Amino acid sequence: MMRLSVNIDHVATLRNARGGTYPNPIALAHEVLKGGGDGITVHLREDRRHIRDEDVVRLRHEDILPLTLEIAATKEMYAIAKSTRPKIVCFVPEKRQELTTEGGLLLGNGNSLLKDLTEGLRKENIGVSFFINPDINAVQEAHALGASIVELHTGHYCTAYEDSDHVTCNGELKRLHEAAQQAKALGLEVHAGHGLTCQSVGPIAAIPQVEALNIGHAIISDALTLGLKEAVIAMRSAIHMGRSHSGAAPT
User: Is-catalytic flag, 191?
Assistant: First the structure.
């Protein structure tokens, strides 16, 4: 069964638009549980534009569902992750001016800090994921730096899907299949996410090596008409349908 972790950042975005405490991300995490979600994902950004430190603390304290904490590879964020102890820490690239994460981590030479932070978290029995582009070299570099999980960036696939650009879409799917196969061969757990909707998730769910998806924007958007519990149920149904067609990579 493929796992679904729901990113609730945009619940906090709506709360922060007017200040105060409503809507409450923790209350919405309970709705994710009711809808059959397997986890909660949040991105604690440097500028705290949506999720705040106290949200992370409460999510861990209430332990509603396993928590994935997305953070930049900085000593400040490492200290927060180490003290709150989520199930998984996912290191992501972060630029203050971006609307959302634009791509995977740039790995390779000069990543001694990322390697040190990864080793420190793994010593605490915290799973460490790298958000990377679907590229074989990136997978190999993530493995060399000590990641236990890679999350493959599906954003370019989703853009091509929405634009009905079938050539690019199939090319991105092939890259995702190849990266997932390489990651699994190296003993890494494979996750995927970014930009997925109920319409586009099927081919990603069909990649046999992918064990979990992190999806937020589409589910929170669908919740405006369906309610969050029903939006989670709808996404799980779409994932199940795609998983039932699991097979070979496109050519």
Answer: no
Query: Is 46 one of the catalytic residues?
Result: no
Interval 62-97: pLDDT, tens: 999 999 999 999 999 999 999 999 999 999 997 666
**What pLDDT does residue 248 have?**
58
Among the listed residues 43, 143, 156, 177, the single catalytic one is: 43
| Predicted TM-score of the model (pTM) | 0.93
Which is the CATH superfamily of the domain at 3-243?
Answer: Aldolase class I (3.20.20.70)
**Residue 215 bridge partners (DSSP):** 6
Domain range list for the chain: 3-243
- For this structure, is 245 an active site residue? no
Tokens of 183: 């990651």
93-104 as b/e, with b when 16 or more CB fall inside 10 Å? Answer: bbeeeeeebeeb
